[in-house]
């Protein structure tokens, strides 16, 4: 069973990744976990009521679990009513990467798409900055998501989002004379590089301390300033 196939009032039995886990307090004063589960087909929420200290310690983002329950509708949104929940064992499909959605094109296609834009940057200082920061980013640039949720929140989403904006900018720049495409392409290539620090990674993505305090724009700005 996959998350996208779950329906209201349907029995559920599946392995999933804990994408998010928030400790909250119920009206009666007891603690519960507000959980978000994911697999490559989607996400779904559930509450683990009266959560024990051991459960709060065990059920963390990035861990794979086996669960049973039932699909239920609350405020017109599908969620899970949990019956059982446990961590997956080593003998079961417990690799978190199995439960993360990926962009539809390969890493090599992403790299091939980005190369012409980098090659088009002829201004030495722009080229040096882009080369340095992308070199530091390395393979992470092609595995990180572009966001925790909402847009391009996929493995490879950062590179795919960047390539998409570059292609859009290329089309628009042909309509207007005088656009500095060196600066335009350099800015787009770097505009979300701060997310490599702002976000924890492609599996069960969370905001880091630096991400919460600074944000990706300030982070990449600081990295550029250090180079120039």
Structural descriptors:
alpha+beta, 228 residues, OB fold (Dihydrolipoamide Acetyltransferase, E2P)
Brief overview:
This protein is of the alpha+beta class and 228 residues long. It has 8 helices and 5 strands; from the N terminus they run E-E-E-H-E-E-H-H-H-H-H-H-H.
Describe the structure.
With 228 residues, this protein is α+β, with helices and mostly antiparallel strands. The chain has two domains: 3-99, Nucleic acid-binding proteins (OB fold (Dihydrolipoamide Acetyltransferase, E2P)); 107-227, no CATH class. Helices cover 36% and strands 23% of the residues. It contains eight helices and five strands. Strands 1-2-3-5-4 form a five-stranded mixed β-barrel. The N and C termini lie far apart (53 Å). The mean pLDDT is 94.
Strand content: 15-25%
Shape: elongated
Largest sheet, order of strands side by side? Answer: 1-2-3-5-4
Total helices: the number is 8
Low-confidence runs: none
- The beta-strand count equals 5
Mean pLDDT, nearest integer? Answer: 94
Report how far the terminal alpha carbons are from each other. 53 Å
Q: Give the helix level as a range of percent.
A: 25-40%
Find the structural class using helix and strand composition: alpha+beta
Radius of gyration equals: 21 Å
Query: How many structural domains?
Result: 2
Major β-sheet, in short? Answer: 5 strands, mixed, barrel
Summarize the helix and strand pattern as letters.
EEEHEEHHHHHHH
Strand and helix layout:
Blueprint (H helix, E strand, L loop, with lengths): L10 E15 L5 E9 L2 E7 L4 H6 L5 E11 L2 E11 L19 H13 L4 H14 L19 H17 L7 H10 L4 H4 L10 H5 L2 H12 L1
Parallel strand pairs: 3-5
Antiparallel strand pairs: 1-2, 1-4, 2-3, 4-5
Helix pairs in contact: 2-4, 3-5, 4-5
